[in-house]
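Hi there, hope your week has been kind to you so far. Do you reckon you could talk me through the fold, stretch by stretch? Thanks so much in advance, here it is.
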Amino acid sequence: MKIKLLILSSLCSLSSLSFSQDSNDIENITIIGERVIHGSATTIEPDELQMFEHIDVHKALANVPGINFRPEEGYGLRPNISIRGTYDDRSGKVTLMEDGVLIAPAPYAASSAYYFPSFGRIHSVEVLKGPSAITEGPYTIGGAINLISTPIPDSTGGFFNQEMGSDSASRTHAAYGVSTENIGFLLEGHFAQTDGFDTIEHVGGDTGFDKDDILFKFRLNSDQGSDIYHQLDFKYQDSSEKSNQSYVGLSKADFNSNPRQRYGFTRNDLMDNAHDQVVITYSVDFGDLDISATSYKNNFKRDWFKVDKIGYNGAAKGINNMIDYANAGTADAIAVLRGTNTTAEEIKYKHNNRVYVSEGTVIKGSWATDNQTLTFGYRSTEDSEDRMQWYETANWQAGKLSALTVGSKPGLSSNNRITVAKANAIFLNEELRLDNLTITAGVRKENWDINETRWNETARTTVATGYPKSKTNNKEKDETLFGFGAGYSLSDSSEVFLGYHQGFSPTTGEAKPESANSMELGWRGQIGNANVQAVYFNTDYKNIVGTCTNSASGIYEGCTIGDTFDGGQATISGLELSASTSFTNASGSTIPLMINFTSSDGKFDTSFESSYWGSVNKGMKLPNMPDSQLSLTTGLVMNNGWSTMINLTNFGSTCSVASCATDTTIDSYSVIDLSINKEINDRSNAYLVIGNVTDSSNIIARAPKNGIRTQRPQYFNAGLRFNF
C-alpha cells in the first residue's frame, strides 16, 4: 500500500516536476512500479524522503510497518535491517537491491551488507513483504528492499542542494540531466562528510566519515508511441568512503559516565572502501508483452582496520570478553579500557581486507491481457569474496598508544581465502482478475553452489590440501518455493487480502538450510478521510540460522567468521497497522498525519545449546527484535510557504541475546525529529532539520561485540535547494 502525504508536494518540486520519470519509458528499475499489489508492499515516495533529508536509511524505514533494525554508529553506514523478524545482522537475510539489481557485496557467498548505497542520494524506496516478494531473491522469508536512484529527468533540468550541520557536517547533492524524445542522460554527485559526535578518550581524533558518490545514466530509445518500443539504458555508479568507525562499544559504567565517548585504543580504527557498478539494460515493449535483459557487475573493495584483540594481563582477549569483564567490575579490565593501566598491553588491530565481485544477467518480462498478467524472470549470478587479512599491533599504557608494528601476511588460514558462489534462479507469477477477486500464484526455483579455496602461503602459489572445498556439502543445493495470494474488493475503497509463501535463505557451513512458511491476512481501505491498512503475519521457521560475523552480538569468542549455526524451529507473528490522513484548519493550512505501528512476537520453539545462540530454552524470545515499533508524523503546511513536520519514533524493548541475561537488555526508547521548510519561490526552498530534539542518550544496541551503543545526539542540518 502506498501511503503518501501528497499535500507535501510543495516540499519537493524536484521530484514531482523535473525528475519524474517519463511515463512512456519502460520501468525496468522497479519491483513495484505501477503494479497493484494484493498484499503487503510500501513505496516511500520522494516527498516523504525529502521531509527530513535523512542520510540514515534506518530513519526512513522506521515509517514502514513490519521493518525492524538495529542502529549502530548513528549514520546508517552499515545498516542492520530486518523484515518481519528476519535476523538483522548486517541485513544479511533481506534481499537488497538498487534499481532492481542485487546490491549486497556478494549476495550468496557473503550477504552481509558492509556496502550500502549512500542513502542521501536515493530517490525513493520500495519494500515488498509476503508472497509478493517471491519474485525477488535469494532471501525470500522476510522480503525485499529496492532503493531507486535519481531517474533521468523528463526534460532538461537539474538541482543543487547544499547542507551544513552539526559536528562540521556538510553535504552537497547535485544533478543535471537532459531528455529528448530519443535520448537522455543524468550526471549526479553526492558528497557528505562529518567529524562525528563521539570523543576518543585521552588521544582525541575524528569519529566521523567522508563519503563521495558519482552517478551517470544514459538512455537511448525509439520514438514514443512506436508499435514496438525499444530502450537501452546504461548506468555507472562510483563511490568511496573513509569512516573512523569502531566495533568497540562501551561498558555499562562507562556508558553511564559518558555515553558519547570512545576508548582511546580505538583511535586507529578506519573503514576505507570503494564501490563501482555498471548496469546495461535492453528493453522492448510489444504492447501486451514487454521483456528486458540486464547485465550488471558490482565491485566492492574494503579494508576495515580496527581493534580485534585487547591485551589483558599479557593475554589477547576478544572485545566481548573485555566488555563482560568490565561489566562484572573487574578492575584490570576497566583499567585497560579506560587507559589507566600502568603495565603496557598489546592491542591487535586487524586489516579486515576483502574484495567482492558480484555479476549477473537478469531477464524479466510480463504478458498482460484484460484479465490476467503473467510475470516471469531468470537470473544467473556469480559472486565472490576474497579475504587477505593481517594484523598490526600497538602498545597501550597510561592513555598512550605506541607506533604501529606491521605483522606478516597470512599463510594457510581463514584469513587467506576466496569464496565463490554460482547461482541460477527462475520465477513465474500469474495474476488472474475475476471481477472483484484477484488471485496470484507464483513459483520460484533457485539452485546454487558455494566453494572455498585456501592457499599454503601468502603468494597463493599452492592450493592447500582439501581445497577447493564445497561449503554446501550434504545440503540441498536447490530450492523450489511456492506462493499464493488473493485480494477481494469489498467496495471501490476497501479490500481484504491473504497470502501464503515458502521462503528460504541460502546457507553454508554446518547449519541446515534456513526455511520457513509464511502467511499474511490483511485489510486496506478508507475510514472517513483516512487511508488505513491492517495486516496480521505469521512466519513458521523450520530452521532459523545464525551466521558468525564480527558485527553480531552475544556470541562466544572463537567462532570462525562465516560459520553457521542452527537455531531450530521458531515462530514470529505480528500485527502491522498504518494510517494516513490530513485536515484543513480555518486558516486554510493543512495538518497531515501518518501513523505506522508494528507489534511483533518472535520466539524459539525448541531448547538447545549453541556457541552462537547460547543456552536457549523453548519460548525464549529472538534477540534484537523489538516487541513494538511506532512512528507518528504530523505537522503544519501553511499557505505562505512555511511548513513544519515532526516525527516521533518509539522502539519497544528487546535483548541482544536469547537468554536476556544481565547487561543484555535494550529498554524501549523514543526519538523525535523536527523539520522546518520555507518555500522561497517555485524553484527553491530552505530547510532546517533538528534530529533527536530531546538529545536523548538511550541504549539503542549492544552490538557489535556486546558493547553499548547510544543514539546520535541532538543535531541540526540547514540547507538550500535549487531546481533549474
Summary: Residues 287 and 621 are 51 Å apart (CA to CA). Residues 1-18, 20-24 have pLDDT under 50 and may be disordered. The longest strand covers residues 289-312. The helical segments are 13-18, 46-50, 57-61, 252-257, 319-327, 331-338.
